[in-house]
Design a protein that fits this description.
Number of strands: 9
Distance between the termini: 18 Å
Radius of gyration: 19 Å
Oligomer: single chain
């Protein structure tokens, strides 16, 4: 897994976001449609993230949705961004993703995180001994790797399907702890800078410094996740971005309602404290016309040394979301052809 800096791949992170007035079924259908378009636009991966007890997100059964997405596409890689491993048995995840890799060979990725993907009450409902498995996360990642490898053939517990598929594993994170683990295991590293930007640069530095080559990866591979909202003009993109800002307001205030439509004036909806919090979370958001985004994304890639970029695009109107992904693909194709 290695790319020259002038051919940087670009990928999609999707949560099957439910918008105001729509249904989970429509959100899932839109995700499937977006994946088809992303494949045609030249995106390398389409990942979905595990979240629970959130009315505005329909990606809780992540592995099920990934099969739905893979079935609708033919070349784009499909994966988790991520599966929250402490919520699950490593064997079950090996079987689920091994099954996906058996049906869709050489197209499945397995991104792993250790956060609950929900509130604490729901986390306890998912697994009442979850904290023990959080502490065992590194050990469980290694166990999962073993289940997916041919070397597990002599074990008394084996993953069928799964064994021998060697599904590529990624470590996901938003802190330096995850950077150390990804480096220690010699795995590619995806950083959640689209909502947790503060430790991006220290994490990248630590990951590169401590990286140990592995069978999967010979040198560090970093994929920051960013927010992108592209449109014909900067003003239109800013207008569309107000839905995302309202959604992140909900993160701060605890409102998990479906994502609302855009508004002309955010100052009528938030106070200075919430505005500051949202803008901090959205530090790595690229909003504007193709020209604006090209300038900003070049600066970001130069700053981070990213090997690949993954984008999250929270846009109320599905057609506008498709258009935004197309415009970003045109930026990346032109700038890094």
């Amino acid at each position: 897994m290695s790319y020259e800096k002038d051919t940087i791949p670009y990928s999609v992170l999707d949560l099957a976001v439910v918008t105001e007035g729509s249904t989970p079924a429509e959100a899932i259908s839109n995700s499937r449609d977006l994946a088809r378009h992303a494949e045609n636009f030249g995106y390398k991966r389409f990942w979905m993230a595990e979240h629970h007890n959130m009315e505005n997100i329909a990606s809780s059964a992540t592995s099920v949705l990934l099969g739905h997405i893979a079935d609708a596409t033919s070349t784009i890689r499909v994966g988790s961004g991520g599966v929250m491993l402490p919520n699950h048995s490593p064997l079950i995840i090996a079987e689920q993703f091994g099954t996906l890799a058996t049906i869709y060979p050489d197209r499945i990725d397995l991104g792993l995180g250790r956060a609950p993907g929900t509130d604490q009450v729901t986390a306890n409902a998912i697994r009442n001994d979850r904290m023990r498995h959080v502490q065992q996360f590194p050990e469980n990642v290694r166990q999962l790797q073993k289940y997916l490898s041919k070397s597990n053939q002599t074990s008394s517990v084996r993953a069928f399907p799964g064994e021998g598929t060697n599904v590529p594993i990624w470590i996901l994170g938003s802190s330096t702890d995850s950077a150390f683990l990804a480096a220690e295991l010699g795995l590619p590293y995806a950083f959640a800078s689209h909502f947790a930007p503060q430790q991006l640069m220290p994490a990248i530095k630590l990951y590169k410094k401590h990286f140990k080559p592995s069978e999967q990866l010979s040198k560090p591979y970093i994929m920051p996740v960013i927010n992108v909202i592209a449109s014909d003009t900067d003003d239109q993109a800013e207008y569309l971005s107000s839905s995302m800002k309202q959604m992140f307001m909900g993160v701060i205030t605890g409102d998990r309602s479906p994502m609302p439509p855009p508004v002309d004036d955010m100052d009528k909806l938030w106070n200075e404290h919430i505005k500051y919090g949202v803008n901090q979370m959205l530090t790595y958001s690229f909003i504007g016309s193709k020209e604006t985004i090209e300038k900003d994304i070049n600066q970001f890639i130069g700053q981070t040394g990213a090997d690949e970029i993954m984008i999250a695009s929270y846009i109320f109107d599905h057609d506008e979301r498709i258009k935004s992904h197309q415009l970003f693909s045109e930026v990346m194709s032109a700038a890094f052809a």
